[in-house]
Design brief:
The complex is a heterodimer of chains A (483) and B (95). Chain A has 15 helices and 18 strands. With 483 residues, chain A is α+β, with helices and mostly antiparallel strands. In chain A, the strands form four sheets. In chain A, strands 1, 3, 7, 8, 9, 12, 13, 14, 15 and 16 form a ten-stranded mixed beta sheet that branches. A three-stranded antiparallel beta sheet of chain A has the order 6-5-17, with no helix packed on it. In chain A, helix 3 links the parallel strand 14 and strand 15. In chain A, helix 7 crosses helix 8 and helix 10 crosses helix 11. The longest helix of chain A is centred in the middle third of the chain and has 20 residues. By secondary structure, chain B is mainly alpha-helical. Helices cover 40% and strands 9% of the residues of chain B. Chain B has a two-stranded antiparallel ribbon with strand order 2-3. In chain B, a hairpin with a 2-residue loop joins strand 2 and strand 3. Chain B is flat, with a radius of gyration of 22 Å. The chains are: A alpha+beta (483), B mainly alpha (95). Strand 11 of chain A pairs antiparallel with strand 3 of chain B.
């Protein structure tokens, strides 16, 4: 059977983190009672006029800067016309010919290799309301709270070649928009939704006909829907049927995609410039002002972590998964000293991440502060605490011992007597006792069994309740056995 | 360029306007007359002229991001044809 190449492009709707709507002063807060946040502009009463929210434009500029796109000095709002009850004006205000951001791209990492995904554009638009199809005596209920919520629609080029790449791209985009603070990225609440354009072709051939899977609001559904769709299209083509352009929905219960009832004129939106809105001008001064307020971007931070702290690319990428994690790590290094950067990385990505994950907690609300962790790592570094007993200290910190005290690790080591014993005069008598009590192991070792040596080290560590410096125990023990 | 009767029916459908056959013929004539004007406009040489999106040459004023609207649901519901449980009711939407 001939091989197929998969071609995917994503359109992502990102809800912008503004307090008020894009064209009105109604609140965008999630979870309000139906229609309590839908004002005259949002419900399209006659005579109302839209007024553009400055902050929504700032979000678009931030995004444009973050992806290296071109920010249009002048962009136009257009009306996208279609009839649906949750769109009370009969059109959605969007951007068509001149989007606010053009081009740019995003680097994704997949199986250890990097890939640059080009972006086509990003444009500002308003969200629609919500239709509730539960039975209201054969009627549909309309909630317009969401109508007019600002969205940035981000369109990728068809550069993605598998569902795994599509998910990697969606995750990278999600990480970026939350990093630069333009969206809360809450997928359950619909703040980040993807449409996937999927087609297949033989390599080298022109693009196949695409079908668009609408409204995927989880990375898992994105993967499942694309995988199903790819297989479906390949089956159709291999059985000699043609693919027809269509909009399809993914059903998470069956794991299948199915075409929406096709309306021949569904895509005839008759865009035209919205006469209610004037051209949006973004001058170089404004861009410079927004740029000055931008946080360091993940990629720049990764490069800095590698250069300044000697971390691997993998560690640097893991630690910059979220801005909170990066902030925590840097706070820990600042307190523990640069020479402890690698142990800090290991603890943050290892024990801390595992605990946070287990308890479903956010690093920003970690019970162990960066300063406390740093205090403990310093004690490992200076030999006061063995790595083994550090786990016990970490446990105590996690359980709230010494809460609020940046030197809690020292207090815990002291109170529990966990200080590592590196004093030969204290260890030697214990070794003598162990040797006397384990003559059999001693003889086995002298007969050439290395395993017996480890058993003796274990006995010494046990006798010191884990506090002896293991390296020193090794050295002293060898010396005694060879004498 | 001129519109066919089918074009007119399609435009009417997109605008959700119901028109009779007689209206359709009349509308077609009117629309074609408008398109004739457009053809005249298109004959003008516009080389080097930046397209305008708006009749006046001013730019968009922006609003600060503040919540200024209060909840007026009860007022709006009072003028809606049908409502229930805080929702506006419309004929059932299938799909």
């Amino acid at each position: 059977m001939s091989r197929w190449e998969v071609v995917i492009g994503l359109e992502t709707h990102v809800q912008l983190a503004t307090k008020s709507k894009i064209f009105s002063g109604a609140s965008t807060a999630f979870g309000a009672e139906a229609n309590r946040q839908a004002c005259a502009v949002d419900i399209a009463l006659p005579g109302v006029l839209p007024v553009l929210n400055r902050e929504a434009v700032v979000c678009a500029i931030r995004f444009g800067l973050a992806v290296g796109g071109e920010i249009a000095p002048r962009s136009i709002f257009a009306r996208k016309n279609y009839f649906y009850p949750d769109l009370p004006k009969g059109y959605q205000i969007s951007q068509y010919e001149t989007p606010v951001v053009a081009g740019g791209g995003l680097t994704i990492r997949i199986d250890g290799t990097e890939k640059f995904v080009r972006l086509t554009r990003a444009h500002l638009e308003e969200d629609a309301g919500k239709s509730l199809h539960e039975d209201f005596h054969g009627r549909t209920g309309i909630d317009l709270n969401r109508a007019g919520t600002p969205l940035l629609e981000i369109v990728s080029e068809p550069d993605l070649r598998s569902s795994a790449e599509a998910v990697a791209y969606a995750k990278a985009l999600h990480a970026l928009v939350t990093w630069i603070g333009i969206s809360d990225g809450n997928m359950q609440e619909g703040s980040f939704r993807c449409d996937a354009n999927v087609s297949v072709r033989h390599p080298g051939e022109p693009l196949g006909t695409r079908r668009e899977i609408k409204n995927l609001n989880s990375f898992r559904f994105l993967q499942q829907a694309i995988d199903y769709e790819i297989q479906w299209q390949i089956n159709e083509l291999e059985e000699g049927r043609a693919i027809h352009q269509a909009t399809v929905l993914f059903d998470p219960d069956t794991g299948e995609t199915r075409a929406m009832r096709s309306k021949e004129d569904a895509h005839d939106y008759r865009y035209f410039p919205d006469p209610d809105l004037l051209p949006l001008e973004i001058g170089p001064e404004w861009i410079a002002e927004v740029k000055a307020g931008m946080p360091e971007l993940p990629q720049a931070m990764q490069a800095r972590f590698q250069a300044d702290y000697g971390l691997s690319a993998y560690d640097a990428a893991t630690l910059t998964a979220t801005r909170e994690m990066a902030r925590y790590f840097e706070a820990a290094v600042a307190a523990a000293g640069r020479e402890n950067a690698k142990p800090c990385a290991n603890w943050v990505m290892g024990e801390l991440a595992a605990r946070l994950n287990r308890d479903e907690r956010d690093i920003a609300s970690s019970p162990v502060s960066a300063g406390q962790l740093a205090g403990m790592i310093r004690r490992i570094g200076d030999g006061t605490l063995s790595s083994k007993l550090a786990k016990e200290v970490f446990d105590a910190l996690w359980n709230g011992e010494g809460q609020g005290d940046e030197n809690a690790a020292d207090a815990i080591i002291e109170a529990r007597g966990l200080k590592q014993v590196s004093d030969a005069s204290a260890i030697e008598p214990i070794i003598d006792e162990v040797l006397a009590a384990n003559q059999k192991s001693v003889e086995e070792f002298r007969a050439g069994k290395e395993k017996a040596f480890n058993a003796l080290v274990g006995q010494v560590m046990k006798a010191t309740r884990g506090k002896a410096n293991p390296q020193q125990v090794n050295e002293l023990l060898r010396k005694k056995l060879s004498s | 360029m001129s519109l066919t009767p089918d074009d007119v029916q399609r435009i009417a459908h997109l605008a959700r306007i119901e028109i009779s056959a007689a209206e359709s013929a009349q509308t077609r004539e009117q629309l074609n007359a408008i398109l004739a004007f457009v053809e005249q406009l298109q004959a003008v040489d516009t080389t080097g002229i930046v397209p305008m999106a708006h009749a006046v040459d001013v730019v968009q004023r922006l609003r600060e991001d503040r919540v200024t609207e209060t909840d007026r649901r009860d007022d709006f519901m009072a003028i809606a044809p049908e409502s229930e449980a805080g929702l506006y009711l419309v004929p059932k939407v299938i799909e």
